[in-house]
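Bug #77: duplicate submission created two jobs. Keeping one. Sequence:
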Amino acid sequence: MPSGDYGGTIQEFYTGAKYGMSNGYNFHLKAKASIFTFAAKAEIDYATFSNKEEWEPGKEEEVSHNILSFRLGPEFRIDIPLSPITPYVDAYVSLNTITGSFQFKSRPNGLPSDKRDMESATRIGAGFGGGAELSIGPIMFLDLGIHYNMVNLLGKEFKATTNPNRIDSYLSLNDDKDPLYSVSSDEHIISDSRAINNLQFTLTILFGF
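Kept job's structure:
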């Protein structure tokens, strides 16, 4: 579930205010090494978000992002005697690579109507959350989790060509303010830095000893 600047409408993406993403889905691999009530956890996560809207009859626009994340951090477990359920809380740092595409059909301001890819960008982030493990066999566990991911805490930037025009605002992630932003400009539209955050629900099957 996108949060804050990462959500909104495609109209807000068009104006440079937000990214306009809708709910998405993820796949992940997770490994834990437990030491008493503490565990070191590593995770690889692939999440995809998209949105499509019709701003006028027959005139559609769409945007999509894919986020590949590598996460590492501690997990603090709360052992309950004789209970098959083990709650936990955790936190982590992450290395995130964001790719995507967009398409504006019949938009003004000289924007092309064909689908364009966004340049890949890498950001450092962090997150926190919690969940519970349920023992469902001798070496099998069901892990239910909820986490809040802050994908671009470090590394925000604005990129443009030497002869910028409006499409430059979309060809890169451009999560920092356009230094040439002007209220009266149709080319420099991103007025502030934008946070890429999301709320994530996970269901994981774990095998351990």
